[in-house]
Design brief:
By secondary structure, this protein is α/β, with parallel strands linked by helices. Helices cover about 40% and strands about 15% of the residues. The chain has an 8-stranded parallel beta barrel, surrounded by 8 helices. Helix 4 crosses helix 13, helix 6 packs parallel to helix 7 and helix 7 packs across helix 8. The longest helix has 17 residues. The radius of gyration is 18 Å and the shape is globular. The structure holds 3-methyl-2-oxobutanoic acid. 3-methyl-2-oxobutanoic acid binds next to strand 6.
């Protein structure tokens, strides 16, 4: 087993080539933003892919509850348990440590693990932080604000998530664009409240590009990370299986298959990092909502 792992990791660049990477921290992310350097985020769920993402220079690795779909074959993220998130977060943390240890790891709080009370959220966040996360992510606006404040006051960095929030797909009536028309104002208020409550990162999923860009200007202390939200955010995130072109379902139209023209997973991830940094991904013409 140990030999198999060594073989897998030995295909990565020698640590000496990538170890110059500065460890990612909240001050480092703020510094990148101040220098207009885009932040890259990618999901990963196991040690090997996390190690490759780390070697490719991905700044933030999201252990997303999308693992329900891509690892567990579930129809949505609703069935993912906290124990599954703990397990995959620990696997990712091990993988990152095997390479540079620099990537910032975000653990997704799954459905049902934070809705009941702020105390329940703290207990669940503690589980993910102790498994190796540096930050937790939770979905939703208004009602989550006090939970975000409770966690951040206790030293747990929080990434919020607005727009299309997959855990509430049934209430939203499907995977639909959010924040169009009158609902844009509501989304704006929620984003500002989350920043005031201490959220230092905000995933904006499937919202109009113009809204995401304008929110970014109004959230100096909270880094917006877009997915299907145009190119005006501080950073971008993709589900790894989508960008590798191995999504079992239909790829959303904002996804790019980065496998095209590449011969290794490491090169695919490097191409993603490069495209986000040089602004060639995302393509705003694919975000005309
Ligand atoms: O779970 C996940 O992968 C996510 C991304 C879609 C942002 O929340």
């Amino acid at each position: 087993m140990e030999n198999a792992l060594i073989n897998t990791y030995s295909t990565l660049p020698p640590v000496s080539l990538v170890s110059g990477r500065k460890p990612i921290s909240l001050p480092r992310l703020q510094e990148m933003r101040a220098h207009n350097e885009k932040i890259t985020m990618l999901t990963a769920y196991d040690a090997t892919f996390a190690a490759v993402a780390d070697a490719a220079g991905v700044e933030c690795i999201l252990v997303g509850d999308s693992l329900g779909m891509v690892c567990q074959g579930l129809p949505s993220t609703v069935g993912v348990s906290l124990d599954a998130m703990r397990y995959h977060t620990a696997c990712v943390a091990q993988g990152v440590q095997r390479v540079t240890g620099a990537s910032w790891i975000i653990g997704d709080l799954p459905f049902g693990s934070y809705q009941e009370s702020r105390e329940q959220a703290l207990r669940s966040a503690t589980v993910l932080m102790q498994a190796g996360a540096h930050m937790v992510k939770l979905e939703g606006g208004g009602w989550t604000t006090e939970t975000v404040r409770f966690l951040t006051e206790r030293g747990i960095p929080v990434c919020a998530h607005l727009g299309m929030t997959p855990q509430t797909v049934h209430a939203l009536g499907g995977y639909r664009v959010q924040g169009k028309g009158d609902s844009a104002d509501q989304l704006r208020k929620e984003a500002l409240a989350l920043q005031d409550a201490g959220a230092t990162m905000l995933v904006l999923e499937m919202v109009p590009a113009a809204l995401a860009a304008s929110l970014t200007q109004h959230l100096p202390r909270c880094h917006t990370i877009g997915i299907g939200a145009g190119d005006g955010t501080v950073g971008q995130v993709l589900v790894m299986h989508d960008m590798l072109g191995i999504n079992l379902g239909k790829n959303p139209r904002f996804v790019r298959n980065f496998m095209t023209g590449q011969s290794s997973v490491l090169d695919v991830m490097k191409a993603y990092v490069c495209a986000v940094k040089n602004g060639s991904f995302p393509d705003n013409t694919l975000h005309s909502w």
